[in-house]
């Protein structure tokens, strides 16, 4: 007899700056059906999800609406939950990334990585919108991909060729906020040294944890060399502060 399984399943987190759309619902309904099927088979299956409640888009949307980010994400969460209930989607827990628990665990992970030498600071050049008077997150810069030449691509990756790059490499960049041409300014940022874990991650991929197609795609990143991950953002920004660098 097959042993009973204990399964934790989730879906992509909806962003808390707007309503649920049909694309969201397709994924959530499919996942809910799968979770219910597992329970009917006698397996223990928990379906959890949450609103993705941090980031510049939420800050800007709240500013435009004349409310605080906290008010926006609270209202949006109620709307999301009402939509899910209307389609009988049965989450075991639906929460928010803007929570005391998430702050605690994010801080704990960061401090552990820092103490083990996997965090570094580096002064880099970043795109700055001279009209909006703010540094621009990667997704608020659009331009031409420096790898394949595709137009209207984001500042961190190309959706046509799949390449990743630094926002300063983007050709003909414009601010998605004001339409102005960004200028470059120096900024000290905190980086997670993802490259420290390259060997471990490659070994993990070879153990069959993911589909072969996914593993083959990820292998391209290793061939190019894993890039250290910028985990900090310049003010103004809506999110948790870094514990030792508020």
Strand content: 15-25%
CATH homologous superfamily identity of the domain at 6-96: HUPs
Biggest beta sheet summary: 4 strands, antiparallel
Number of helices: 6
N- and C-termini, Cα separation: 55 Å
What is the SS-derived class?
Answer: alpha+beta
> N-to-C SSE series?
EHEHHEHEEEEEEHHE
Radius of gyration: 20 Å
- Which second-level CATH architecture of the domain at 6-96 applies? 3-Layer(aba) Sandwich
User: Would you tell me the overall average pLDDT?
Assistant: 93
Overall spatial form: globular
Note poorly predicted spans: none
Q: Helical amount among residues, as a percent range? A: 25-40%
CATH top level label of the domain at 6-96: Alpha Beta
CATH topology of the domain at 6-96: the name is Rossmann fold
Strand order of the largest sheet: 5-4-9-10
Strand elements, count: 10
Provide a quick synopsis of the model:
With 246 residues, the protein is of the alpha+beta class. Helix content is 34%, strand content 21%.
Structure description:
The protein has helices at residues 22-40, 56-65, 69-86, 100-115, 198-205, 212-224; strands at residues 6-9, 44-51, 93-96, 119-129, 134-135, 141-144, 153-154, 171-175, 183-192, 229-230. It has 246 residues and is of the alpha+beta class. Among the domains are: 6-96, HUPs (Rossmann fold); 122-190, Methionyl-trna Synthetase, domain 2. Strand 6 and strand 7 form a beta hairpin. Helix 2 (56-65) crosses helix 3. The mean pLDDT is 93.
């Amino acid at each position: 007899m097959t042993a009973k399984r204990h399964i934790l399943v989730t879906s992509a987190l909806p962003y808390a700056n707007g309503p649920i759309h049909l694309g969201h619902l397709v994924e959530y309904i499919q996942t809910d059906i799968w979770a219910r099927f597992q329970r009917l088979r006698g397996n223990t299956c928990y379906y959890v999800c949450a609103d993705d409640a941090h980031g510049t888009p939420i800050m800007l949307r709240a500013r435009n609406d004349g409310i605080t980010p906290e008010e926006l994400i609270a209202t949006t969460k109620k709307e999301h939950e009402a939509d899910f209930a209307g389609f009988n989607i049965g989450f075991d827990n639906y929460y928010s990334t803007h929570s005391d628990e998430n702050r605690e665990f994010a801080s704990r992970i960061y401090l552990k990585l820092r103490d083990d030498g996997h965090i570094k600071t580096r002064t880099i050049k970043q795109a700055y919108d001279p009209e909006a008077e703010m540094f621009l997150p990667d997704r608020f810069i659009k331009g031409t991909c420096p790898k394949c030449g595709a137009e209207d691509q984001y500042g961190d990756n190309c959706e046509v060729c799949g390449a990743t790059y630094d926002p300063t490499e983007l050709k003909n960049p414009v601010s998605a906020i004001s339409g102005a041409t960004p200028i470059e300014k120096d900024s000290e940022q905190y980086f997670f040294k993802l490259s420290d874990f390259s060997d471990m991650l490659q070994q993990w991929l070879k153990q069959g944890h993911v589909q072969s197609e996914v593993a083959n795609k990820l292998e391209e990143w290793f061939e190019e060399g894993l890039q250290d991950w910028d985990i900090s953002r310049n003010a103004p920004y809506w999110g948790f502060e870094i514990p030792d660098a508020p």
